[in-house]
Amino acid sequence: MSQKVLLSSKDIHIILHRLACQLIENHLDFKNTVLIGIQPRGKFLADRLIKILQEEYQVKDIQLGYLDITFYRDDFRRGDKTLEANKTQIDFLVEDKKIVFIDDVLYTGRSIRAALTAIQSFGRPAEIELLTLIDRRFSRHLPIQPDYRGRQVDAINEEKVKVMWKENEGEDVIYLVSN
Is 10 helix (H, G, I), strand (E, B) or coil? Predict the structure, then answer.
C-alpha cells in the first residue's frame, strides 16, 4: 500500500477560505440558507466552514445541521457488518430554505442521493446545493455534480481518497491511497 499527499494542511486552509468566500458570494447573509453536514465525515468540513464564516468573515446566525443518511443508502442491506447510524441534528425548518449539503468527498454520488431522500423528512426546500472538499471525477454512478468543490481529483477505482481532520485524526491532510 502506498499513499501520496493530495492536499497539505496549508492547501486545505486556503481551500476552506475560498469555499467560504464562494458561499458568501452566493448566499450573502445566509438569512434564507442553511448548511447541512452529511454524517459522518461532512460534519468536520461543515464545522470548519461555519467557524471561518463566523469568526473571520463575521457572518452571524448561520443555521447548521447534521444529517445521517445510513438507512437511506441503497446499499445498507448489502454489507456483512452491522451498520452504526450517526445522529441527525436538524433543529430548524428546511421548508422553502436554500440548503447547502456539505460532504468531504464526492465519489459515486450515492451518498448525496441518499441525503436528497433523507432531507424530505424535514420539509420541502426551495433549492439544494452541494459543496464538497474533494470531487472524484470520472467515478460517478449517478448524475450528481458539486456546486462548490475544493479540488477535483482523477483517481481510479482501486484508489481511495483519505481525508484526515485535526479534530478527529490529529492532522489536516488528504491522501490518495493505492493498494
Answer: helix
DSSP three-state, residue 48: helix
> pTM (2 decimals)?
0.93
Cβ neighbors of 77 (< 8 A, separation 6 or more) are none
Phi, psi values for residue 85, rounded to 5°: -80, 150
Over the stretch 103-134, which tens digit does the pLDDT of each residue have? 999 999 999 999 999 999 999 999 999 999 99
C-alpha cell recorded at residue 31: 438569512
Binning the chain into helix, strand and coil, the percentages to the nearest 5 are 30, 30, 40
**Residue 84 pLDDT > 90, yes or no?**
no
Please give the pLDDT value at position 77: 63
